[in-house]
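User: I'm putting together notes for a lab meeting next week and I want to include a structural view of one of the chains we've been expressing. I don't have a solved structure, so I'd like a prediction I can at least talk through. The sequence is below, exactly as it appears in our construct file.
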Amino acid sequence: MMAKGFRHALHSIFALCIAFVIGGCQPKDISQNVTYIQLVPYQTVVDSDDLTMINPSIIRFNPAQNEFYIYDNRQRAVFRVGSDGSFLGNIGQPGQGPGEFERVSGIYFGYDTIYLVDDIQLLVHAYSDSGIFRESFNYGQLTSNPTNKVSVGHEGHVYLPADHTHEHLFRMITWSGEEVGSFGIPIPESTNQIDYVELRSAVKDKRVPTFFMNNAFVIPNYSQNVIIYDALGSLSSYSGFDLNWQSGGASPAIQDSITLPYFEFMDQILQQADVMAAMRVYQQGAVANEFVYLSTNTSFGQEMQIHAFNSKGELHKIYIFDTETPLNGSFDIDADNGFIFAGTTNAEVVAYKIGQ
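Assistant: Thanks for the context. Below is the predicted structure for the 356-residue chain, given as structure tokens.
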């Protein structure tokens, strides 16, 4: 009977997912003291017919090489692609051998190194720019936080999420395993245990559940490391371990327009079963020329926006996209040439011109 009830709950959840995706829930047209810029496609950089992609879930542009590194999470493949869309080879391959991955959760650049984070095997793989495997770093014994993402800085330091007993959210670990410091301020009201009574109450009240308050990821950059609290929609910038600035992110009205579909969806889900789905305002991010760019959550049929924050953490511009094919939330920035590269649900990578 329990198995039958669970299957019925899953069936109801699936039906609700389909209803939300088909119907969508677009952000409201809310007047804010920011500049809205509508972008039109400039060029299709990678076509699915040329590369046989299914879902480009991570896109990283390396200006030093003028190349793309694209992870297709359906094919479990990392493609190395020229700026003209030409296929240059694969980085690693699926598996459990040297340099092989089960799943890639992040792609990061060092001075002459490409890092892939495998969050299933708890490994960071290092490759040359051309994709030759060098070595792996096993972080499995160094963190017990299963929620927040591991990332890698340009100097090769690994940013590991700390557990709830640590005074900071992330620890910086050298490739040899030595901790050199920590950064990131935990939210005092947060909890590390899921409480479905509190979760249901928070969803009803349309507020962030305490279990998700410390959900965060780091955007490493040469000039600063930025922590994104993806459920709260807030940001913190650090130079090394020193706090530069903190920002509440977009205005409450803008954030509410992004999170409303989550609350509506979860309210119906939690009437069926104790099921947890992470709450996110932002999906991915990039830092370029002191600006922080964040893609908004595209779940439930929402159209992707990119929010650009200036060097003080103030929301400066909101980019919206004129496209017949929905964007999937993956993107990167070529600030020098003024491009946003975005992945589509048709497995393409499209360039949008944002100016010099």
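A couple of points you could mention at the meeting. Residues 1-31 have pLDDT under 50 and may be disordered. Residues 149 and 155 are 18 Å apart (CA to CA).

User: Perfect, that's what I needed.
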